[in-house]
Amino acid sequence: MRLSVFAAALFLSLPSVALASVPCGGSFGSFISNMKTEAVSRGHSRANVDRFFSNARRDPAVIRADNAQGVFKKTFIDFSRAVISQNRMTNGRRNAERYDTVFDRVEREYGVSRGVLLAFWALETDYGAVQGDFNTLNSLLTLSHDCRRPDLFRPQVFAALELYERDDFDPVNTKGAWAGEIGMVQMLPKDILENGVDGDGDGRVSLKTSPADALLSGARMLRGLGWRANEPWLQEITVPSNLDWSQTGLNHERSVREWARMGVAARSGGLGSANLNASVLLPMGRNGPAFLAYPNFSVYFEWNKSFVYVTTAAYFATRLEGAPVYDARTPSPALSDAQMRNLQSKLAARGRDVGAIDGILGAKTRAAVQAEQVRLGLPADAWPTTELLNRL
């Protein structure tokens, strides 16, 4: 589901070696031997298993890619401006026209708005142009052998074996992202098994070459992750200067009716249904862009774990459906990497759960920042500032 550096976001909060519950590590040859034994015990023929693993190799480049996550330290404004280019906007509109009947079917059968899939299609692979050149099986084996997250990747190897036996996976020639995702919207083998759709009616699920297959499969997966049909996901808003900032953030919800009574208004058009629950999202604090995040926004985090990626993808989807460029306003300057790590260390020392001390302003760090802002009597908008750092 997540191409190249974007793939890293999925794994920021997954189990480490200490939590691994499946075999990993040791010599790679012994590891492959054990994988083959398990595959046979699962009912696969020895001949198929031998052919499937015959060219298995450990790929050091996969580990290097896994460790490259600096992009997620960018602010929402910097990240969104970097990835939402005019070219992607133009190609998005062209693809919306070209595959209009496919999107009509997506909306009819799964209730997923076309902008949502167009944005993923753009951010993951530039509408299919850049799908990754890592050998998929070797990527999955390398990450299964590595003891940080074998629980995630080992099942994907056996899913790929099942696809191979269906003649839908070539262990030698199938290529994709470093983390094992395949195709235009980047899906892992297990996701393909569970959600693959033959959208073009040729009898195959071809996520690398068929936009219809890729888009319908992505929509089916989103629905399986909890997408609520024909509901909004994100909307830019204006907020009053006297809003209770401690009630903002994804960890706080109110009905749209309540937010409207508190002075929240749509920047363009109207707000969603009055009975929908929603959160006021301030990705760069009370002086930056402001959004209302509806229930479907939470599904984005099932696709990707990075706050900045998710917010950008959701906002991009609204742009592709006609929303204006957000009002950036004048947020307080972001902390440097060293300052952010220092802040996370101080928050952790106070018993706040920030996840990893990695310099990334994720959901846990935001919640910890907001809690300390409340304690110190600062505007509790979850945006870390030098003032907060100094007060701690």
Describe this structure in words.
It comes from Pseudohalocynthiibacter aestuariivivens. The chain is mainly alpha-helical. It is globular, with a radius of gyration of 22 Å. Residues 1-20 have low confidence and may be disordered. It contains 18 helices and seven strands. It has three domains: 4-67 and 131-224, Helicase, Ruva Protein, domain 3 (Orthogonal Bundle), CATH 1.10.8.350; 234-295, no CATH class; 337-391, no CATH class. The chain has a five-stranded antiparallel beta sheet with strand order 4-6-7-3-5. It has a two-stranded antiparallel sheet with strand order 1-2. The protein has helices at 4-10, 28-41, 46-53, 60-66, 76-83, 86-98, 100-110, 114-125, 136-145, 150-165, 189-195, 211-224, 256-261, 297-303, 307-320, 337-349, 363-376, 386-391; strands spanning 134-135, 175-176, 234-238, 254-255, 265-266, 277-281, 291-293.
Short summary of the structure?
By secondary structure, the protein is mainly α.
Question: SSE layout and pairings?
Answer:
Elements: H1 4-10, H2 28-41, H3 46-53, H4 60-66, H5 76-83, H6 86-98, H7 100-110, H8 114-125, E1 134-135, H9 136-145, H10 150-165, E2 175-176, H11 189-195, H12 211-224, E3 234-238, E4 254-255, H13 256-261, E5 265-266, E6 277-281, E7 291-293, H14 297-303, H15 307-320, H16 337-349, H17 363-376, H18 386-391
Antiparallel strand pairs: 1-2, 3-5, 3-7, 4-6, 6-7
